[in-house]
Design a protein that fits this description.
The complex is a heterodimer of chains A (about 230) and B (about 425). Chain A has about 230 residues and is of the alpha/beta class. Helices cover about 35% and strands about 30% of the residues of chain A. In chain A, strands 6-7-8-3-9-10 form a six-stranded mixed sheet, with helices on both faces. In chain A, β7, α6 and β8 form a beta-alpha-beta unit. In chain A, α3 crosses α4. Chain A is globular, with a radius of gyration of 17 Å. The two termini of chain A are about 20 Å apart. In chain B, α2 runs antiparallel to α11 and α13 packs antiparallel against α15. In chain B, β2 and β3 form a beta hairpin. Chain B has a six-stranded mixed barrel with strand order 2-3-10-5-9-8. Chain B is an alpha+beta fold. Chain B is built from 16 helices and 14 strands. Helix content of chain B is about 55%, strand content about 20%. Classes of the chains: A alpha/beta (about 230), B alpha+beta (about 425).
Chain lengths: ~230, ~425
């Protein structure tokens, strides 16, 4: 079953010289995939991820996420859609610095108005899954980059999204942290059938991905399933 | 959680937040103090004028106010006096006979308002006896004895300024004084009086121009019977409207006025002052508001990536707006109450010890203001200021919140 479907997607940034960041991308991603979107800088990876994640709108084409046409949603509907359907992991971790690991993970569920008991058990479950059960009450500035990114993964998974979009999640991590993070994500993917889509040019991520979609100048130039 | 985040965000940049909180605290404390100083002066002025000059109510013949001729009197046996005597709400009342004329000695002649008073009643009504600083208060009820102001005593040569080495001036009451005025028939008359005492007034102009004589002497000299003015001092000013209405109903042929009508400038100054204070506080809060806007804009700018993340993961606009609003409100809610409390404490201290402005007593005396000012702020002003601080916080949060809401999550999340 397709979680994400894009059909002839275009994104043009207008300016003195128009930039065709995404140029006719048609891509289907199924439930449980572990997909890397790769390509050199400026190839359109991040733009494609933004459009799929409902953070940006396509100039032309169609994006269906779990059967919902994102272009038909208003801004407020898109915010709600992201909250309930998509998990985000960012390159720079982007945790809320004034909240602890537990609170950061719980935050999205609070936005969803989930009951307290459910929030507490889910937070514990997720932070244990990412190996941070002993850092529940630690704030981001007291954690390493790898630990922060693991909290970010736990936060992305907390609302039980249809899929997780990770934009260069390992760009700021050392080899050990990268390996740990990829192990955790691969395990979650296999055990719980959570769909992961990465944009990356980190070979370590590409090696672990089961499907690699390569972009160049906004076009898919290869799509390899291992 | 939103409240928790907003509160912790306030303390992310401690120095910056403390600067804003301190400026709110100091701004409010000093503006409350300045306000209390002005309120204190105004309140004392009003009290001085009421207790030493005009009292709470005045009754006149309707013709007297526009054209103060001797003939416009309230009869000696008027029902008004019986009515006043029966009122338990009255602290004191007294009748006065009033004319104008000249007071002359060998030193010169000066225009004066000559007021014939009932000494015993006037002593309670306007504290005239307490204000006597030299001589006596109509000693032994001696005929044709008068009381003059300290400033007039100096002009007429009764006051001998302190010589070098002396600490206080001396007074010589041996000199005779001639009062010239008209009698009831318009005939000019002159009568010899003896200065029995010198009084001090808060109003330096009245001190130069008002002469008090015994009403019996002035009535005898002018041929007037009855009173030109009956002044009434209430035990509780709240009872003024009731008594005023009763007096009007019982004596429709007389003019009954409360102190606001007798001296319209009192009410005008009070109203103008209140408006001025609102503008003054408004300007202080406006300046503080800009400081808050600046701080919050810096906070938003620094947290662009975080805000982008919050929008990306599904925090809606209302919650983003509320977060910014709460942060601003928290800063005001810390600085505001502390500022109001410190202001209240400062006001309380100077309400007890007063502020000595005797160096400016001459000028202040012209406006009935005492040289010792006791600070005072009406209680309702404190919560009004509190409300204004909250409104300022809300308004000051609007622009930064708007800037936050205008961020595009996809761009903001990658901001450097």
């Amino acid at each position: 079953m397709n979680v994400i479907e894009t059909n002839n997607l275009h994104k043009i940034y207008e300016g003195v010289v128009d930039v065709h960041a995404v140029n006719g991308v048609s891509l289907n991603i199924e439930q449980g995939e572990f997909t890397a979107i790769v390509g050199p800088s400026g190839s359109g990876k991040t733009t494609l991820l933004n459009i799929i994640g409902g953070l940006d709108q396509a100039t032309e084409g169609e994006v269906m996420v779990g059967g919902t046409d994102l272009s038909a949603l208003s801004n407020n509907e898109l915010i709600d859609f992201r909250l309930n359907n998509i998990g985000f992991v960012f390159q720079a971790y982007n945790l809320i610095p004034v909240l602890t690991a537990r609170e950061n993970t719980e935050f999205v569920m609070l936005l969803q108005n989930r009951p307290k008991a459910e929030r507490e058990s889910r937070v514990k479950e997720l932070l244990t899954a990412v190996g941070l059960e002993d850092r529940l009450d630690t704030r981001p500035n007291q954690m390493s980059g790898g630990q922060q990114q693991r909290v970010a993964v736990a936060r992305a998974l907390a609302p039980k999204p249809k899929f997780v979009l990770a934009d260069e999640p390992t760009a700021n991590l050392d080899s050990t942290s990268t390996a740990n993070l990829l192990d955790i994500m691969a395990e979650l993917n296999q055990k719980e059938q959570i769909t992961f889509v990465f944009s990356t040019h980190d070979q370590r991520v590409i090696d672990r991905a089961r499907r690699v979609v390569t972009l160049e100048d906004g076009k898919i130039v290869s799509d390899i399933t291992k | 959680m939103l409240i928790q985040i907003a509160w912790r965000n306030v303390w992310r940049s401690k120095v910056r937040s403390l600067v804003v909180i301190t400026s709110i605290t100091l701004g409010l404390m000093l503006s409350i103090f300045l306000m209390s100083f002005n309120f204190g002066m105004l309140e004392q002025r009003e009290r001085n004028i009421i207790t030493t000059q005009i009292s709470h109510l005045q009754i006149h013949h309707p013709g007297f106010k526009g054209d103060p001729k001797l003939k416009y009197t309230i009869g000696e046996g008027a029902a008004t006096l019986d009515q006043l005597a029966d009122q338990s709400s009255i602290k004191a009342f007294a009748g006065r006979v009033i004319t104008t004329g000249f007071a002359s000695t060998t030193k010169g002649a000066f225009g004066a308002q000559i007021i014939g008073v009932q000494p015993e009643k006037e002593a309670v009504l306007t504290l005239l006896e307490e204000r006597v600083i030299a001589g006596g208060y109509f000693p032994n009820g001696r005929k044709n004895t008068i009381l003059i102001g300290d400033a007039l005593a100096e002009k007429l040569g009764y006051k001998i300024p302190a010589a070098e080495g002396d600490t206080a001036p001396t007074y010589n009451f041996r000199k005779r004084l001639i009062l010239s005025f008209q009698d009831l028939n318009g005939q000019p008359i002159s009568a010899r009086f003896r200065v029995g005492g010198v009084y001090k007034a808060t109003n330096s102009i009245l001190e130069k121009t008002q002469i008090f004589v015994q009403a019996t002497d002035l009535k005898r000299e002018t041929g007037v019977s009855g009173w030109h003015e009956i002044a009434v001092l209430m035990k509780d000013p709240k009872d003024i409207p009731v008594l005023k209405q009763e007096l009007i109903s019982a004596n429709p042929q007389q003019l009954v006025q409360d102190y606001g009508e007798v001296s319209p400038d009192l009410k005008f100054i009070a109203d103008t002052f209140a408006t001025t204070m609102y503008i003054f506080i408004g300007i202080i809060l406006l300046a503080l508001g800009f400081g808050i806007v600046n701080t919050m804009l810096m906070a938003i700018l620094e947290r662009t990536r975080e805000l982008g993340m919050l929008m990306s993961i599904g925090m809606n606009r209302i919650k983003i707006f509320l977060m910014v609003l709460l942060e601003t409100t928290f800063m005001c809610m810390v600085g505001g109450p502390i500022g109001i409390l410190l202001g209240y404490m400062l006001v309380s201290i100077f309400n007890r010890v007063g502020i000595d402005l005797s160096a400016f007593s001459e000028g202040m005396g012209s406006f009935d203001i005492s040289s010792q000012v006791y600070t005072y702020v009406p209680a309702e002003w404190y919560w009004q200021i509190g409300l204004m601080v909250i409104i300022t916080a809300f308004i000051a949060s609007l622009y930064p919140a708007r800037r936050a809401l205008k961020l595009k999550p996809a761009e903001a999340v990658r901001a450097i």
